[in-house]
Amino acid sequence: MKILGLSAFYHDSAAALVVDGEIIAAAQEERFTRIKHDSAFPTHAVQFCFDYGKCEIENIDYVVFYDKPLLKFDRLIETYVSYAPRGYKSFIKAIPVWMKEKMRLRHQIKEVLGKIKNPIVFTEHHQSHAASAFFPSPYDETAVITVDGVGEWATASIGKGSGSELSLLQTEKFYRKEFLIIYGYNPPQGMPGGTRGSFVCLVSIVKKQTSHQRKRLSKRKFIGSSIYK
Predict the structure, then answer these.
(1) SS3 of 178, please?
(2) How large is the greatest C-alpha to C-alpha distance in the chain, in angstroms?
(3) Are 56 and 100 contacting, i.e. CB atoms less than 8 angstroms apart?
(4) Beta strands in the chain (DSSP E)
(5) How many C-beta atoms surround the C-beta of residue 54 within 10 A?
(6) What is the distance between the alpha carbons of residues 133 and 127, in angstroms, rounded to a whole number?
(7) Closest CA relative to residue 71, chosen from 123, 108, 146
């Protein structure tokens, strides 16, 4: 079975080719365009995967996108409505992008890749994170924990991986105040906006710090999602 995995239209667009459970090729679009955190459809990365794996789109059994855009759009609309009129500027900036790109993903995938006879599948954001950790790991059975900024609705998930199966057992929803505070926080200079999720991972740590330690943490510089003193 040949699977083409896609990530696009948020940050760090990428593609991966998996054949019979083995990762044959994977690449980020920025490696080819030289645009840092390139969010465009990963056309070059897809072509690299095909060339390296000696494969064509006609040979692909499934095209899998890492996210469920309709479910995420539901979360965005509900959040904007709940906090209206606050967030109006963000709303009028975000919605046209959704209408033009993210709500038409299935069409765009077909438009770029050509005629696709087999299914296009959309997985949940946290399923994708969990799968990327569990399936390449050396473990046959293990717990899987995902802590991220926000997917469709989930900000943190607990799951179980066993053999070729992976299931999410419990999720923490977006409305937890810690996550809302983090997402409303502007990243320090030098840290890309898309890496607010890194702060979510630090919530439990920061809670235990003294005020002096928090001040030191806030002064650290950021490169991508890596922290250095």
Answers:
(1) helix
(2) 59
(3) no
(4) 2-7, 14-19, 22-28, 62-65, 120-122, 141-147, 154-162, 165-173, 221-223, 226-228
(5) 9
(6) 10
(7) 123
Is residue 69 reached through a cis peptide bond, with omega within 30 degrees of 0 on the bond before it? no
Q: Which of 120, 122, 108, 2 is nearest to 50 (CA)?
A: 2
d(C-alpha 122, C-alpha 95), whole Å: 21
Q: What is the pLDDT of residue 169?
A: 92
**Where do the structural domains in the chain lie, given as residue ranges?**
1-123, 138-174, 177-224
Q: Which CA distances in Å does 111 have to 19, 102, 104?
A: 24, 14, 10
152: left (phi over 0), alpha (psi -120 to 50) or beta: alpha
Global pTM? 0.72
Considering the domain delimited by 1-123, tell me its CATH architecture: 2-Layer Sandwich (3.30)
Q: Which two tokens stand for residue 157?
A: 């998930």
Q: For residue 64, what are the CA distances in angstroms to 8, 107, 121, 128?
A: 11, 14, 5, 10
Tokens of 109: 């995938």
Beta strands 226-228; 14-19: pairing state: unpaired
pLDDT digits (tens, 9 = 90+) for 132-166: 999 999 999 999 998 877 778 888 889 999 998 99
Q: Are 64 and 121 in contact (CB under 8 A)?
A: yes
The partner residues of 222 in beta bridges, in order of sequence, read: 227
The one-letter amino acid code at 103 reads: M
C-alpha 169/C-alpha 171 separation (Å) is 7
